[in-house]
Amino acid sequence: MHFNSKKTILTPGSKMRKNLFLGVFLLVVFLASWYFLYMQLTDISVVPRASGAQSELQKKPVVYFGVISRYSPHILYEGYQPLMDYLTEKTAYHFKLRLSHSYRETIEQLKSRRVAAAFLGTYIYLRSRRKAHLHCILKPLNREGRPFFHSVLVAPENSSIRSIRDLAGKRLALPSPLSYSAHWLSTQAGFQMKQLDSAHYFDFHNTVIYELLKGNFDAGVVKDRVANEFLEKGIHIVARSRLIPASPIVVSDRTDPLITEAITNTLLQIDIRQAQYQKLVRNWDAEFQNGFMIAKDSDYEQAGL
Hints:
By secondary structure, this protein is an alpha/beta fold. Helices cover 36% and strands 19% of the residues.
């Protein structure tokens, strides 16, 4: 049996290339390890819980809270999850958000008991409450401490559109056809949509603003809460609707009354005149930063739809 005993001889140049390669490899490993450690230490998306707190949380029954797809999932989670965390902390339940792909899907989630409660829009609540056996329990307050909002017509800052009449022949961006804002021009202002050059519906209110800023449309309609975020970023408000009853928190007639009571009592305790609550709601969606009040079906019967 023959063995090849030939040795590989490393020249000074090959030794240098080998050492250089090894050095680069070790540097890459070090940087990758450092980056991973840094991300772990600075990741604020997951708040560590003490083992005792985690154990207590696991004992709580999970309750799912639905929300219509008025904003993108990222914006919804960012603004709505802190409210879920507060309900979980203050009640005997572990509240979790359950998002949907459409307004109608949230209604189906309520009907099938996949969610016990939901954040609905005023329009879809009015259209669905009887058939889906829904009941409003709370409505958010605006900056003036009143349970109303406005739909608003917006246009770019340099636009010649200064009134609803100026929409004739223009391109209009609208949110979901199941949102109140998509209808107020024709139901309240008496504007005939056939006067437009074109109209397009988008899934999210924020998308309406983005499309407007990109120059794809001449004007758009959104909730005032969304428009207010962009007033210093390239748009102005052309017109406002009359006061519309605030978008309600609803339950179905199959929701456990104890869950309804827990949600209602906990959110009604929020008093933003107190410093502790001002700090609490700071990271909540702007629609919920002023507290809540009891909602009744009669509050929505005069909404004009």
